[in-house]
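Give me the fold.
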Amino acid sequence: MYRAIIGAVAGALFFAVPMLLGGTPDADAAKSKGLTFYQTSAALYNPVEQWTDWVQGTYNGFPADPSLWVNNPTSCAWHVDDSTVWVAEGELLAGGSGVASLCMVSDQNPIYATHYGMTAWWSGVRNRFAVTISSPSSALIVTACYQPQARCFAVNAVWHQETDDYRYLACIQAVYDPGDPALVEVPGSNGGGREFGGFGVVTTIATTITNPTGHTIRDLRAAMEVTNVGSGSQRIGAGAALACEAGLAEINWPSYDYPFRWNVP
């Protein structure tokens, strides 16, 4: 379905000792201290497909009047086709750690909406958060933490024989039941002709990588993304979606603790 794109940005976060957030350190300092994460792509679309009514007779299936759309006023992924990708490669000094964060709107499934004249509870896929790190060492401590849910996931090292290194992989999704009190109307999301906008939990996901050893760990490669891996166009070569492969079918998540479901090999 056609969407209007509302964002495509590029930038950098720095893994350093201490962590550098904001500002622009000089290139030599950044290189000597650790990993540099670059946002390689970001695509945010309006209207928010899963919350906007679908109608017959328009080019894109959405109402011709934009005031009837549910829009995304945030800089976070929300539309089911939204995506954002951060990648890095380099080294992490002994005792070093850092945090790289991205955000998404976690919402409910199903959603009460009208699709081509039929009003019902409609179910659909929801975006996932995926992370992968390749490393010659299994000693890294990697966590992915959700706020405001105050939930952290440990990401473990698994030997990857094909590439002769360790992989830290995780695929995590938070999906809420309708009526959950954690769901609130996203401010500014409702068009002028709608009674309500879209509901969700604006979520920040912080991935922390720590080197607890007494030596530098080199040849690190990492990727983090918010993606709907059910869409082939959203699978990236960096491999952050690898851990999501087992979760492609909604019934196939190996771990579940409401509102979270996840695959951490």
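The two ends are 34 Å apart (CA to CA).
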